[in-house]
């Protein structure tokens, strides 16, 4: 707190706020935190309640004090004025960060030669979530459609590989495009009837759809093996397998090239293919948002009525975003299944959808760089900070609420370069 | 009419009346600020824990008689859950009143994750339960089989309808109810006429949470067990009920709840219990496709 301001500060209001907040916290947290059910009896835990109430009171006091000070008032005003959408940059604007993309690419190319197997798997997981985040970013960030059952399309991809291998004998490479198609088709089937209606319904219908898929995968024992899951084949390189010994008398990868057997090679291969896919998706997305369809997504997000008045077919525009998002999730699902070597329904709960949504929200809706960073932060950080694992969901929830209050457009705002006037043309 | 059908009809009605109570929370909030309160299912889950805690505390202090025990627990659960409703609105929705359309929805998802995880962390992940408080049942002979209606089910039906009647009275005959209806019709106009709409919105959240609290107590009495994940599925089902009846309409929420409850009970009695949730969610999708305004709702017209 700045000292000169303090004399003019009214200390009574913050104190009152703090006491009120403390009382509310006592009633709200008291019973659930303080009385822990144990069979039909209970254990009292007053110390935890005291901690929470104390923290709430102190936090409320400091917040109130800050908001009553001059800098706090200024901060509040800036807050309310930050509703503008896309930040438009000057036509000749060159970002200071333009060297970062080649640097990251270089790091991505060099890194596998030094990484341990554990680090490699963590990074692969991070890349899978980058793919999911990019896909959901098209749906939520660009088109403004809240999809809470995104994990269903991820499950379609993953189970597509498992079921395709089990019943049709398909491998990684043939399923990869098929899964993207199947997920897009499922997205179209689900989206077409729902997208005609008011936007909020889509959220709850997709939520229901996500649960339907999970419940069917869990209950259809004869097809999917239920909670026991299914095994998934490893990817192959031009038909060469990465195992120590190939099945059906084939030649494994390491024998064909005459190198020593290394179990990491499988993960290196997945990493390479995944990296290429992510780069491809990034490129496609970068082109799409400059095309009429991308502009239409964003316009529809900002004002649907105006767009329809201008003659945009809102159902088709939304449907294209929804299907593209779904097919990206299908791709991610195939990678996830072959990386794990095994799928079961517990990987596709609502929490996964919420995690992907958190990635999009934190990264900035519509912002590509933000989503890539957020995907790594939210998936790699919990791997490194195992001791906080219990609090992960709590932190995600708080993050979502705080981000919506503080910066509903995400940490990294979407920015777009403006157009220069052509010389010789009247403005 | 055979025995199984009647038995499932009774089960469905009790379940459906409770769905209706939770659906009221969705429908009132949607009617007044036009957002889907995703955290409402979690409020129900909290109230289930609170009612078990209330029962345990009251029993510990030596309260034995059933009416007093239930009444005390109900009072405790409704008050604390109502405060939850108020706090959630104050923290997560009010600052977003003028934000983008997606912001309150995402914030609601955040609150729902917070509540789930907070209950899991403080109460443990295992299933909790309460002892059976009301023993015994009415038995009737129907055809070859017989029909059994436990006292708990009768109590649930009576209490749920009493709760709905009380709410109808509040909405139609009190000053607060009049303010709610005015705010629902036109928020800006109500504000101009001197209604503190922020306070009305807070009250709507408190009323919705109180109804969810009644539902939490009743379901806990019926099934006896619950866990921190219980709010998710019941939340979607209650939302289905609200949409089925026409979102924004109070009688619609109650009617939708009863229909959904009966349909689900008949489905699990005749076809398969494993897929009863799939059945309810598919029903939701189908209603939204073919009759998005629900049974008693009016079609939405967007004005510029």
Automatic annotation (TrEMBL), chain A:
Its main location: membrane. Keywords: Cell membrane, Membrane, Transmembrane, Transmembrane helix. The chain crosses the membrane at residues 20-37, 49-70, 97-115, 122-145, 151-168, 175-195, 201-221, 267-284, 319-342, 354-377, 389-406. It is a multi-pass membrane protein. Coiled coil: none annotated. It is found in: Cell inner membrane. One of its GO terms (molecular function) is branched-chain amino acid transmembrane transporter activity. InterPro entries: ABC_transp_permease, LivHM_N, LivM-like. One of its GO terms (cellular component) is plasma membrane. Residues 15-111 form the High-affinity branched-chain amino acid transport system permease LivHM N-terminal domain. This is Amino acid/amide ABC transporter membrane protein 2 (HAAT family). It comes from Azotobacter chroococcum.
Automatic annotation (TrEMBL), chain B:
The lineage of its organism: Bacteria, Pseudomonadati, Pseudomonadota, Gammaproteobacteria, Pseudomonadales. It is a multi-pass membrane protein. GO terms for cellular component: plasma membrane. It comes from Azotobacter chroococcum NCIMB 8003. Its main location: membrane. This is High-affinity branched-chain amino acid transport system permease protein LivH. Keywords: Amino-acid transport, Cell inner membrane, Cell membrane, Membrane, Transmembrane, Transmembrane helix, Transport. It holds the Pfam family BPD_transp_2. The chain crosses the membrane at residues 12-36, 43-63, 69-88, 100-119, 154-171, 200-221, 241-263. The keyword Phosphoprotein does not apply. Belongs to the binding-protein-dependent transport system permease family. LivHM subfamily. InterPro entries: ABC_transp_permease, BCAA_transport_permease. GO terms for molecular function: L-isoleucine transmembrane transporter activity; L-leucine transmembrane transporter activity; L-phenylalanine transmembrane transporter activity; L-valine transmembrane transporter activity. It is found in: Cell inner membrane. GO terms for biological process: D-alanine transmembrane transport; L-alanine transport; L-isoleucine import across plasma membrane.
